[in-house]
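[User] At your convenience, examine this fold.
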Amino acid sequence: MRRITIIIPLLLLALNALAQVEAPRNKLEIGVSGGYNMSNIDLRPTIRQKMLGGAGAGISMRYTSEKYFSMICAAQLEINFAQRGWEEEFDDGNANGYSRTLNYVEIPFFAHLSWGREDKGFQFFVNLGPQFGFFVGDSERYKGEWKPEERPVSINEVYGKKVQNTFDYGIAGGLGVEWKTKAGNFFIEGRYYYGLADIFRNSKADPFARSANQTISARLGYSIVIFK
């Protein structure tokens, strides 16, 4: 009986502490962002590549639901247009070249975790989650007088080859800082995308075993609070 009288108050204290740890939130924000992408392709057999630059822009919606200790928890959905692709590196320097730009509509769905000031001031944040993409077009650029058949046999089928898988998916993550003001919220973020899908078919009869997108991006953005 004495043990019970000790355990019950301890359980009540623990439940009370847990209730205080989770602090509900109810805030919705919408925003816009734009930035610069640096991309390549994980192609096997491999080719020597440079990072290809491209633009990116989109809209976002973020819902903040709760706070655990000092961590603010939210879900973030985005719809973006992004230019990806790759640039091949030739042995003869800049005399010859090949690059391919792939255009996508991206839909990332993130767990958005942040630490810092909720209303005015700075927050550090992390974004992590799946990302889906829909291929909408591409363009190729040939530089010099070389011919595809003059390139190594292991890779020469990539030139002019159509994208065969138009649905893309992978994992994305980012780190950033957000400045919250009366006029709205301003943020800067660095992000990495690792593609899990291949743009070309990858059966044993196909020339490439892997052909997945990889992108590093820098983004600037602005958001406003709709309600809280």
Q: What stands out?
A: The two ends are 48 Å apart (CA to CA). Helices lie at 2-21.
